């Protein structure tokens, strides 16, 4: 009797733990893009944090008539920081200011933007919670966690190993 | 006869449109005198601004608005209110930005290009062209309403970011009415200044970088 009671209690506790930790989605193919793009221009407030430093600007995204997704970042004052394109799965660098023209940094942007804007990307793990969805890709130093907040149109990309976070908040109008 | 009248009418219309366009400045000396006098008398400027960023690749321009403040000597504050609250202050060798409650202060002192850019911006936004160094070529134009100064950097490092500045000075009071900063031949940012107040700022409160 006591043994059965302990077993049932243990099962009950396990059940509670699983239900509170969010739904684990094991399928990592056939997933929708985190940020859907279309012919309408979208603007995001972009906050880039690297260790103790932070930078704020805007990210502008639009799918062009030839299906290319154009991604441009600029300071609020005006100057363009970078101008990238995603076409047929390829990442194109149209323009990038000198300080950001680093091979590893460009590769980071390529991976992040592909995961954000393209559908059917490979993720190691996808978890759905009430308020947000969490997607994990890569391992160790290459590990990236993507958060999509459902009610406030916020997207966060965390590269914990290199101390970098990119937060995008959609701007209206 | 009718055709002849039509042709004459079109020629007159064409002439009118040509004269409405900018032409090379007639009297540069008079312009420089007026500008010198204004720079002497105007110690601060406060105005609203509307900013339109034009990127050729996109269908729509990106609009921002806010308040602009300038105080002698080279102090600039741009307080954006739309689409987000964002503050830029340039005071001396310091550049401060505040976004989402987070403050960042950068020292421009060690960077020659940044210092030059700061002077350039102050000159463009205040109209005090005497602050523009010899590292820039200037061209002078005018129409009935404006003086237009086109400023082109000679320095390749600066030209990588900015191809030229178009400064429109209102002939009424020699204040900067419009400013265009071009990144290349097709992408630029326009600033339109309105509701201008002169000499209204009595202290440097708006320009604190602490």
Total domain units of chain B: 1
Count of individual helical segments of chain B: 4
Q: Which spans of chain B of ≥5 residues are poorly predicted at pLDDT below 50?
A: 6-19
Shape of chain A: globular
> What's the overall average pLDDT of chain B, rounded?
86
Proportion in β-strands of chain B:
35-45%
Q: Can you give the helix content of chain B as a percent range?
A: 10-25%
Poorly predicted residue ranges of chain A: 14-20
**How many individual β-strands of chain A?**
11
What features would you describe in this structure?
The complex is a heterodimer of chains A (173) and B (210). Chain A is an alpha+beta fold. Chain A has one domain: Clam (outer membrane lipoprotein receptor (LolB), chain A). Chain A is 20% helix and 43% strand. Chain A has 2 helices and 11 strands; from the N terminus they run αββββββαβββββ. Chain A has helices spanning 2-20, 103-117, and strands spanning 23-25, 42-50, 53-63, 69-74, 80-87, 90-96, 125-128, 132-137, 144-149, 154-159, 164-171. In chain A, strands 1-7-8-9-10-11-2-3-4-5-6 form an 11-stranded antiparallel β-sheet, covered by helices on one side. The longest helix of chain A is centred in the first third of the chain and has 19 residues, at 2-20. Chain B has one domain (25-201): outer membrane lipoprotein receptor (LolB), chain A, CATH 2.50.20.10. Chain B has helices at 2-20, 28-41, 112-126, 156-159, and strands spanning 23-24, 44-54, 62-71, 75-82, 86-91, 94-99, 102-107, 136-142, 146-153, 164-170, 176-182, 188-198. Chain B has a 12-stranded antiparallel β-sheet with strand order 1-8-9-10-11-12-2-3-4-5-6-7. In chain B, a hairpin with a 5-residue loop joins strand 11 and strand 12 (188-198). The longest helix of chain B is centred in the N-terminal third of the chain and has 19 residues, at 2-20.
């Amino acid at each position: 009797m006591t043994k059965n009671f302990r077993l049932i209690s243990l099962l009950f506790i396990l059940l509670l733990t699983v239900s509170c930790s969010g739904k684990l989605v094991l399928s990592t193919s056939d997933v929708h893009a985190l940020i859907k793009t279309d012919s309408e221009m979208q603007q995001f407030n972009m906050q880039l944090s690297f260790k103790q430093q932070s930078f704020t600007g805007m990210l502008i995204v639009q799918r062009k008539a030839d299906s290319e997704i154009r991604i441009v970042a600029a300071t609020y004052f005006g100057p363009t920081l970078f101008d990238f394109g995603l076409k047929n799965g390829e990442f194109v660098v149209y323009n990038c200011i000198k300080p950001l023209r680093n091979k590893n940094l460009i590769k980071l942007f390529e991976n992040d933007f592909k995961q954000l804007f393209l559908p059917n990307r490979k993720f190691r793990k996808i978890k759905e919670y009430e308020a947000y969805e969490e997607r994990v890709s890569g391992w160790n130093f290459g590990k990236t966690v993507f958060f999509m907040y459902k009610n406030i149109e916020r997207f966060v990309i965390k590269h914990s190993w290199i101390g970098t976070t990119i937060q995008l908040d959609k701007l209206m109008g | 006869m009718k055709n002849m009248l039509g042709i004459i009418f079109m020629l007159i219309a064409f002439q009118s449109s040509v004269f409405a366009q900018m032409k090379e400045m007639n009297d540069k000396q008079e312009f420089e005198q007026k500008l010198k006098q204004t720079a002497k008398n105007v110690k601060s400027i406060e105005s609203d601004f509307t900013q339109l960023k034009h990127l050729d690749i996109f269908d729509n321009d990106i609009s921002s608005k806010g308040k602009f403040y300038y105080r002698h000597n080279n102090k600039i504050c741009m307080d954006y209110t739309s689409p987000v609250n964002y503050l830029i202050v340039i005071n001396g060798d310091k550049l401060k930005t505040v976004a989402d409650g987070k403050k960042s202060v950068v020292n421009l002192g060690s960077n020659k290009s940044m210092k030059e850019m700061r002077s350039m911006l102050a000159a463009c936004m205040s109209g005090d062209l005497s602050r523009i160094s010899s590292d820039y070529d200037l061209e002078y134009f005018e129409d009935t309403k404006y003086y237009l100064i086109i400023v082109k950097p000679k320095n390749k490092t600066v030209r990588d970011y900015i191809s030229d500045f178009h400064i429109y000075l209102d002939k009424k009071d020699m204040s900067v009415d419009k400013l265009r900063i071009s990144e290349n031949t097709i992408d630029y940012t326009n600033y339109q200044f309105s509701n201008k107040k002169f000499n209204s700022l009595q202290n440097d409160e708006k320009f604190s970088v602490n």
